[in-house]
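MODEL INPUT / OUTPUT PAIR
PAIR INDEX: 1
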Amino acid sequence: MKRVAILLIVGLGIYNFYSCTTAGEKKPKITPEEARDSMKVWYAIGKDYLNKAEDNRAEYEDAIRNFRKALYYASQISDKKDTLFKHLLVDYAYAFLRNKQLDSSEYYYRKLIEVDSTDPRSWQGLGFLYGIVNKDYEKAEEFYKKALTFSPDNPDVLFGLAKVYELSGRQDKAKEIYEEAIKKNPQNVALNKSYGRFLFEAGNYKEAIKYLENAYNLAEKKDDKKLLEMLVDAYRKAWDNDKSIDMKKALEYANILVSLEPDNYSYYLKRADIYEALKQLKNAIEDYNKAYELNQNAKVLLVKQAFLYNELGNKAEAERLAKVVATDKEIEDNIRASAWALIGDIRQNVAISLYNSKKYEDAVSTFDSALAAYQQAQLLGDQKWKDYATKQIQRVQALRTKAWRKWKRID
C-alpha cells in the first residue's frame, strides 16, 4: 500500500508538472522506470473507474480519461511488450467499446495486435465488436477462431463464438460450442447463464433450469433479477409438460424476486402463477390482489381472482368481481368476454342446483340469465370464447327446456 501511495504521488506530481509548463518550456525527461511507474498509477486509477462504470457507479469517460494519461507515459517506455502496457491497451479498447466509441475501440484492439499478435484478447475484443455490436457474424467468427488458435481452452472466447453462432441462427453449432465451453469451465457464471437462456429460448425448459440454477448458485451476488425471472419462468413452463418438476423450488426463487423488488407487480403475477400450480389458491388470490393494487390498469387480474374464487366455492365473490370487468366498456372485449363466460358458468350451476331442488320456475329464470351472459361472451370474444359460449348456450337451452317442462307440469 505504501508503494502504491508513493507511486500515486509521483504520478500526480509528474502529470501536474507537465500540465503547468508553458508552450516555450521544455518538459523534463523522465527515465523509462519513472514512466512505467506513472503509467502504472494512471492505469490503476482508470481501471478502478472502469470497474465502477460496469456497476453504474462512474462513467466510462472517467476511465478513458485516466487511461489516456497512462498511455502518455506508456509511449516513453522501451518494452512495448510490457505486460502492464498490454493490459492498458485491452482495457482502453474495452472502455471505448462500452462508451460506444467503436472506431477508437477497434483502433486500440488492433494496436495490441501490432504489439503482440499472439495475445488472444485483441482478437476476442474484435470478435465481440464485430459480432455482438456490429452484427457482422462472418468477421466475428474469424476473429474468435483466431483467438482460439492462441488460447484454445479459453472459456470466454468459446462463449463469444457460441453467441455469434446463436445470433446468426446456427443453433446446433452454438449448442456444441456452449457445451464445450462449460465442460472446460463449469464454474463460469456467465457461461451457465447464457447457455441456460439459450436452452430456454429453444423451448428446452427442463434442461435450462439446470444451467440457470448453476449460474445463480455460483454467483457471488444473489440479486440478479433477470436471471431469477428466467429461472422462475423455466420452472413454470417445464411444469406444463412434466408435473414431476419441483414447483416448491420455483416458489423459493419467486419469493426472492418479490423480496428484491416488492413494488414490481409482475413479480406477484409470477408467484401467483406458481401458487396456482401448487393449488395454493388463497395465496394466489392474495398475490393477484397485490398486483392489482400496484397496477390498477390491469383489470384482467380481477378476472383471475374471480376464477379462483369460483374454484374455491365462493360464487358470490367470483360473480361480483367478474361483473366489475364484464360491464366496464373501457376494458378489452376479449377480457370482458371471459368475465361474461364465468358469470354464465356460475349462473348455470346455480340453475342446475335449483332444478335439482325442484325449484323449476327459479331454475328457468336463472338459466335465462346464464344464457344472457353467454350471449355477451359470444358477442365480445375471440374464436376461443365464441366456441365456448356457443357450446354452453346449447347446453343451457336444453337444460332450460327440461326445467320449463317440469315447471309447466308437462313432464
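PAIR INDEX: 2
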Amino acid sequence: MDHLPAILEEVPTGQGFRIGLYLEHLSEAAALWEQRPADRENPDLAWFDLGDEEARLEAHLDALVLGGDLALAVCRQQALDGDAGELHTALRVFCRHGRSDLVGVAMEGVDPDDDEALNAMSDALVAELPTAWEPGALRADLLGDPRRLRLAADLVTARQLPGRDGLLDALPEAPPSLRARIVRALGQTADGLVDGVVRPLLSDEDAEVRLEAAVALLRSGAPDAPATVLRAARTDPALLPTLALAGHAAAVPWLHEVLQHPPSAAAAADVLGLMGDPRSVPVLIAALSGEAAPAAARALDLITGADLTADTFVEDVPDEDELFDDEKERLANG
C-alpha cells in the first residue's frame, strides 16, 4: 500500500470516496460503542433495543472487514490518531482479519494513563481476540506493561482463562486501578491460595480493591468468608454492596441506620433493595425526601415491583454569565 497518501481522508477521487466511506463506518461504529454504557443503564430501553444497536454495530464492522487493505489502512490510521471509539472498532477489525501485527501497533499507541483508551482496547480484545492468541496475551513476562496486564486481567475474568499465576506475580506492584481488576480475575478461581492472597486486601488503602477483595473472598467458598466480610462491612462503607451477597435478616436494622447518614445512604438503599426485606419499605419511603431519594426509589421498585414512576419537566434555566449580550437582551424580553 505504498501508493497511499500519508494521511487518508475523503477526497474527490474514486479511492478518496472509498476512504470517506470507511471513515464514516468507523465513526458510526465508534459512536455506537461509546453510547453502549449509557444505553445499558437506561431503564426505558428493552433488551431488543440493545440488540438492534448491536446489529447496527455489526453491520459497520462487516463493511470495514469487507473493505480489504484500504479499509485496514484507514483503521490503522484511526487506531493511532482517532478517538477511543475508533480505536475499539479498529482493533475488532484487526482481530477479524487475523492481523496480530496491527493489534500490536495499536496497543503500543495506547497511553497507559488514558482510562478511556484502555477501556476501548480491552473491551474490543475481550470480544474479538482469537482463541489461538490467548496464550500470548497471558504471557507472564509481558505483564510488566500495564496495557497487557489490564488485558490479561479482563481476559481471565471474561473468558475464565488459566492465567492466575502471572496475575498473582503482578499484583504487588500493580497500580490501584489494575489491582482491583486483578483481584476480580483472581476471584474467578475459588481455592485456598486465592483466599490467602485476597484476604489481606480487605484493609487495602483503595476502596475499589477492598470491594473486589471482599467479593473474591465470598466467591472462594471459605467457610468463614461471609462472617469476615460482614464484620469488615460494619466499619467500611465501601463494602456495603457485598451485603447484597452475604447479608442476612440481622443486617437489615443496621442498614436502616446507615440509610440516615448521607455519605453511605445511597449504597445502603441499593443493598436494601437487593435484599428485598419488606421491613425496609417504610424506611425507604421516608428516605425519598433526602439526598438518597433516587437510590431509595430504585430499592422500592425492586422490593415491590410497583414501577411507580412519573416524568417531571425540569426547566433548564440559563446562566446569564454564559450568555452573549444579544442573548441576554432576548432573555430579558422573554
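PAIR 2 NOTE: The mean pLDDT is 87.
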